[in-house]
TrEMBL record:
Domain DUF4145 residue range list: 22-102
Signal sequence, start to end: none
InterPro entries named in the record: DUF4145, Sel1-like, Sel1_AlgK, TPR-like_helical_dom_sf
Superkingdom of the source species: Bacteria
PANTHER family reported for this sequence: ERAD-ASSOCIATED E3 UBIQUITIN-PROTEIN LIGASE COMPONENT HRD3, SEL-1-LIKE PROTEIN
Organism lineage string: Bacteria, Pseudomonadati, Pseudomonadota, Gammaproteobacteria, Alteromonadales
Listed name of the protein: DUF4145 domain-containing protein
């Protein structure tokens, strides 16, 4: 009986290789597995188009899936499944943007592999005009931790060293989602990043991806103080060798200026365009921003919408704003809210805050789930200490929007907002504190319940700090 890798390869050797690679990395470097999942989806759309002699209008995976759907070459079930695989792959490319824990990444990668097999079973009769053969899933951990470490240490294998570095880096990037204590998360992340930097440095001479990551490690100071004067030239060197992430980052350096590179918008456009053509989502988004800054809204909308459709949450948020304002497109409030919801669902902080505000203010938001609004506000505080989220949460806790009133917690959030807020935010916070002080004092005078009196007194203490 065929094993699962041979089963997929029977449909297409190229798909079989992508599946084998994804399975190989799933346990130790799940982000790499998810990147292969996305590549699998890309190759599969090409196979479907080739059979129908269809030429794609765009290299963008989202557009390819939609074009297949419009041509009725795939049904709704396959369309949705391909979009899920696309989205899973995007999470592998930018795990830190989605606030996923390492355990969640492992579950996501494992589930994506199962989805790949289901997709092959579904499409096998259509592509080969025969029923799929029986197969069994082999319990094959080709790249378990021991094997990876052996290759990296004993064989001085640059690819294994790079993968070890990525394993440590991704654990560091997901540390915040695994630890409620911010200081603990920072300490764990620092240790993991130092380990990642070590392996990137070892592999940099022989592996282009490791060279890029080594530059990033020096730029951000994974092991010591940041060394942009050393890190940025290494990133530029990787960019000249067509490393896509390096081209995207070098383009960003030229767009905003950096330690080694002065602003040069022509060079910025050059490198961002190269990376965008390779479907690097941040490059597409930044290319859109570059056009936006130059008031070329049609081009900005084109690239930002491409980045949004690729699953990049920051681009989804900015696309929502452009649709609301009608910049580079016809204004579309419904589509704007849809993209805002998509960005919020993927953990984009500005989008979560905006969605929560829409829900609390009872604005059109495709459902006003107030428990979801509360979760968004708390996540915005947890991950970025957003003062406006503290303010909105405090107001909702005092007016009963969440179905309960908690004056003590509201006072605590306003106290924190007061200590962290900018001058503009202070202008909002201070009147709210004064108002809540007055209301709390009045209720305290009338209260006859000892527990309530204790809570109200605690709230006043917090507000007075």
């Amino acid at each position: 009986m065929l094993d699962d890798v041979a089963f997929v390869a029977a449909l297409s050797p190229a798909l079989g290789e992508e599946y084998r690679s994804a399975k190989r990395y799933v346990h130790e470097v799940p982000t790499q597995a998810l990147l292969h999942v996305r590549s699998f989806a890309h190759r599969l759309t090409g196979l479907l188009a080739e059979q129908a002699q269809l030429s794609f209008d765009s290299p963008n995976l989202y557009e390819r899936i939609e074009q297949l759907n419009r041509q009725r070459l795939i049904d709704v079930r396959v369309t949705r499944a391909l979009h899920r695989l696309r989205a899973d792959g995007n999470r592998g490319a930018h795990p830190e943007k989605y606030h996923l824990s390492h355990h969640e990444l492992l579950k996501l990668a494992d589930k994506a592999l199962q989805s790949l097999l289901s997709m092959v079973e579904l499409l096998y009769p259509r592509l080969l005009q025969q029923e799929p053969p029986a197969y069994e899933v082999a319990d094959n951990r080709e790249l378990d931790g021991r094997e990876l470490c052996y290759r990296a240490v004993m064989q001085d294998d640059a690819e294994a060293q790079y993968l070890l570095g990525m394993a440590f880096k991704n654990r560091a990037l997901t540390a915040q989602a695994e630890h409620d204590d911010a200081h603990r998360a920072e300490s764990v992340a620092a240790l993991l990043l130092a380990k990642a930097a070590y392996w990137f440095g070892l592999a940099a001479e022989h592996n282009i991806n490791a060279l890029y990551e080594h530059g990033v490690a020096l730029l951000h100071g994974y092991t010591a103080a940041p060394q942009p004067e050393v890190g940025e030239p290494l990133i530029a060197e990787a960019a000249t060798q067509q490393q896509v992430d390096a081209m995207a980052l070098l383009g960003y350096f030229y767009m905003v200026g950096s330690h080694c590179f002065s602003v040069d918008l022509a060079q910025a456009q050059h490198y961002l365009q190269l990376a965008a053509n390779a479907e690097q989502s941040e490059a597409m988004a930044n290319l859109g921003v570059l056009y936006y800054q130059q008031q070329q809204f049609t081009e900005a909308f084109h690239w930002i919408s491409h980045a949004a459709k690729s699953g990049y949450p920051h681009a989804q948020y900015h696309l929502s704003l452009m649709l609301a304002r009608g910049e580079g497109c016809d204004a579309d409030v419904v589509a704007s809210e849809q993209w805002l919801a998509e960005a919020a669902e993927q953990g984009q902080i500005d989008a979560m805050l905006a969605r929560a505000q829409h829900m609390l203010n009872d604005e059109p938001s495709f459902g006003s789930d107030l428990s979801q609004a509360e979760q968004y506000l708390r996540l915005a505080i947890r991950y970025e200490q957003r003062v406006m989220a503290m303010i909105e949460l405090a107001i909702a806790l005092t007016d009963g929007s969440f179905g309960r009133i908690d004056v003590v917690e509201a006072a605590a959030w306003l106290n924190m907002a007061r200590s962290r807020g900018s001058s503009d935010e202070q202008a909002v916070v201070l009147p709210l504190i004064a108002s809540l002080q007055q209301q709390t004092a009045r209720v305290l005078q009338l209260s006859t319940d000892a527990a309530e009196q204790k809570s109200l007194q605690r709230a006043l203490e917090l507000l007075a700090d």
